[in-house]
Amino acid sequence: MTTVSLAFAQVNGSPAGAEPLRQNGTLVAQVFSGGTVRDIRVEGTQRIEPTTVRSYLAIQPGDPFDPDRVDRSLKALFNTGLFADVQLRRDGDVLVVQVAENPIINRIAFEGNRRIDKENLEKEIQLRPRVVYTRTRVQSDVQRIQEIYRRQGRFAATVEPKIIQLDQNRVDLVFEINEGPRTGVRAINFVGNEKFSDGTLRENIQTKESAWWRFLTSDDNYDPDRLNYDRDLLRRFYLKEGYADFRVVSSVAELTPERDAFYITFTIEEGERYQFGKIDINTTLKQLDPATLNDIMTTREGDWYNAQEVENTITKLTNAVGDLQYAFVDIRPRINRNRETHTIDITYEINEGPRVFVDRIDITGNVRTLDKVVRRELLLAEGDPFNSTKLKRSEQRIKDLGYFERVNITTAESAVPDRTVVNVEVTEQSTGEIAIGAGFSTSDGPLADFSIRERNLLGKGQDLRFGATVSGRRQEYDISFTEPYFLDRDLSAGADIFRVRRNYQDESSFNEKNTGFALRLGYPLTERLRQRVYYQLQDTLIEEVPSTASKYVKEQKGERLTSLIGQELTYDARNSKLTPTDGYFVRLTNDIAGLGGSVRFLRNRLTAGYYVPLGDDQWVLSTTGEVGYIVGLGQKVSLADRFFIGGDTLRGFNTAGIGPRDVSTGDALGGTRYARGSVEMSFPLGLPEEFGLLGHAFSDVGTLGKVDISDPNVRTDETIRVSVGTGLSWKSPFGPIRLDLAIPLRKENYDKKELFRFSFGTRF
User: Fold this and answer.
1) How many other C-beta atoms can be found within 10 angstroms of the C-beta atom of residue 320?
2) With 70 as the cut, is the pLDDT of residue 3 above it?
3) Which of 147, 346, 652, 700 could form a disulfide with 742 if both were Cys (CB 3.0 to 4.6 A apart)?
């Protein structure tokens, strides 16, 4: 340790420095009392000027010797952090200051840091090369490094600083790091739970017990911040189940003696379960009839109390009242809890809210993505009236971009009265994708496709994609670029260039080559209604038609040029575009070919889907349907422009597996009108949620027909085909993977079946 001594040169004829003195001794006061300081001599300095040392002293030449001033001078020199040792002594009427300078750091190195890069550690510590070395600063940086590892769940990490002495009073500082294993969670226990088992409660918190299969997640590592979040998740779960008096008494995390795992214990009080009592609406808004809002409420008298449904009702009421042009609305539930009958009466108070405006919008966490990419998805701007419902929809719009792993929008008070600050915090994720698809059937065997895509090019939200399918039956190459905000307006502009060669020998005994380009422009009509217009120029060549092919295929052999314009009108009321669990969408597509080229037709398609959550968000019932019709304008519809159904569009049947077919050759001829639909239930498999596994049960129906061919060998039955099946999907680290097994229940004898389909993708 650093030592400090006070000495004097001579006392009553004694030799200089003969008797060391204690700081608090009587002799110290005697030595440093009496007489005047004639001079101050500084010894031991190397880099620091003696005048700098004297500037820190509380005593100067001409001052009387004073023990208090000497003591203050000693403390002042140590507080500079420049010296490892300081000694003061008196040599007659000269005050001698003997110092030993702290070394200068030449280099800082880290050893043993495999999990955290050197650059990230350097950002956290305060010491730098060419800075004065002090033990206090080193210990502070050791604690900072340990805190970094604790945030990664490594509570057993140790950091030992070492120095290497160099010449010229320089040192190399080395932090030797033993990262240790991740500090997992050995067990999660609950005390006080009678209505729900420990297993059920563990499923409803984010922290998980350590297990070998959780190597792809960090939820089984102890995180004190996550523990606070788990308390809130438990509260939400019990309030959703009707336990309005629930509270978490304590949450304790105990580290094992080996420092390799934690035991977590939640002590809870469940309380009684409540039901909804009387539900009512009161309002002070003029010309607003509360009776018109009764059908909007999702809370019903007699149902078990559910805090989430109360929030849903407030959101729906806010939207409905907002649609009636009430800009500032404050809806609050007045809750009356009856502990004797275990009922909760709720009155939704609708009043004019405070006139609050958005002061500013702060966006953080977007290292790569430009601010304007996030800002343009917000339904609020600086100066707009604040609206919490629009804020929630804005949060979902940002999530639907697919650029961010986490999106959190909060508000804070502004320095300006009647103003609020909107804070948008995002955590970016990889937006590059490598997608690989695969399928298999008894007739086709294996097939695969590949695409590489960047959905957030240069952080501007631009979408660039290159796709290629290489197999024995199909070769596709396409390049697509989309600018979602063309000219800094809500205009989605894009272009596509493609060259496709498909082998339809098994389905229809011909090969098809398509080469061309397309231009696209999309724009909103309302918040949920959007239109897209496009132009496409495509050269189509049907070739390699064998002599055994149907004569109706042979007559299609040759080259055609299609010049087409079209539009797509979409109304989307789903709660999410990426993973919808509630809501619906409707899409109308119209194409007309004939503005140049050699092909003329009118093609129409109508698609719709509806999603209903059943209890839990993982239980989702979805229905989709589609109808299409194409008619030639002064000519027959060519084989390449007809509809083909099967594969992904009708599971249980091969690609082009149903519809008009020449039974003498087995060639599918396509159809000019079709209808198909699907009903699917997605459900959890009872496995831990972090597995990302879902089961699916579905039934597909479809029909395809109507071709202008009169031939007994051509079957054109427009009977309904039906299939049922089950599937398994996995949100793997490599992307979504899905396997479907389907069996036709209703089919024609000339249809071609397919047992299962398999697809997967990955991101980088």
Assistant:
1) 17
2) no
3) 652
> Which of 20-24, 458-462, 475-479, 660-664 is predicted with the least confidence, judged by mean pLDDT?
20-24
Helices (H), 24-134: 26-31, 50-55, 67-79, 118-124
Output phi, psi for 140, to 5 deg: -65, -40
Q: Quick one: which of 375, 423, 432, 380 has its CA closest to 403?
A: 432
Q: Do residues 141 and 127 make contact, with C-beta atoms less than 8 angstroms apart?
A: yes
* Neighbour tally for 189: CB within 10 Å: 14
* pLDDT mean across residues, the chain: 84
Higher pLDDT pick, 260 / 497: 497
Question: Cα–Cα distance between 741 and 698 in angstroms, integer?
Answer: 10
Task: Give percent of the chain with pLDDT exceeding 70.
Answer: 88
**191: pLDDT strictly greater than 80:** yes
In this predicted structure, the answer to whether residue 614 has a pLDDT above a threshold of 70 is yes
Full strand arrangement of the beta sheet holding 184-191: 184-191, 261-269, 247-255
CA angle 484, 488, 489 (to 5 degrees): 75
Contacts for 25 with CB less than 8 Å, ≥ 6 apart:
none
Interatomic CA distance for residues 490 and 412, integer angstroms: 29
Which tens digit of pLDDT belongs to each residue from 420-447? Answer: 889 998 887 766 666 555 544 433 445 5
Which of 609, 564, 565 lies closest to 587 in space, CA to CA? 609
Please report the pLDDT score of residue 445 as a whole number. Answer: 45
pLDDT at 451: 67
pLDDT tens, position by position, 628-648: 999 999 999 999 999 999 888
Flag the least confident range among 18-22, 57-61, 72-76, 690-694: 18-22
Do 94 and 32 form a contact (C-beta atoms < 8 A)? no
CA distance 698 to 623: 10
CA distance 761 to 180: 34
DSSP 3-state of 208: coil
CB burial of residue 593 (10 Å; 0-12, 13-18, 19+): buried
The CA R_g of the chain, rounded to the nearest whole Å, is 38
The pLDDT-based confidence of 735 (bands split at 50, 70, 90) is low
Q: What angle do CA 454, 492, 451 make, to 5 degrees?
A: 25
With tokens 């070919």, the residue in question is 593
* 643 residue type, one letter: F
**Residue pair 613/620 in contact by the 8 Å Cβ criterion:** yes
- The crossing angle, in degrees rounded to 10, of helices 388-400 and 307-323 is 100
Instruction: Indicate whether 354 pLDDT > 80.
Output: no
Distance CA 87, CA 92 (A): 16
The phi, psi pair for 55, rounded to 5°, reads: -65, -20
Identify the burial level of 539 via C-beta atoms within 10 angstroms of its C-beta, where 0-12 means exposed, 13-18 middle and 19 or more buried: middle
Q: For the residues of 696-763, what is the DSSP string, one character each?
A: EEEEEEEEEE--S---TTEE---PPEEEEEEEEEEEETTEEEEEEEEEEEE--TT--B--EEEEEEEE
Q: Give CA–CA dist 173/165, Å, rounded.
A: 9
Please give the DSSP secondary-structure letter assigned to residue 305: P
Report helix angle 224-240 to 307-323, nearest 10.
80
Distance in angstroms (rounded) separating the CA atoms of residues 316 and 422 = 22
Upper half-sphere CA count for residue 146 (Cβ side, 13 Å)? 13
Residue 39 has pLDDT above 50, yes or no: yes
- Strands (DSSP E) along 544-582, which ranges? 558-572
Phi, psi of 498 (to 5 degrees): -145, 155
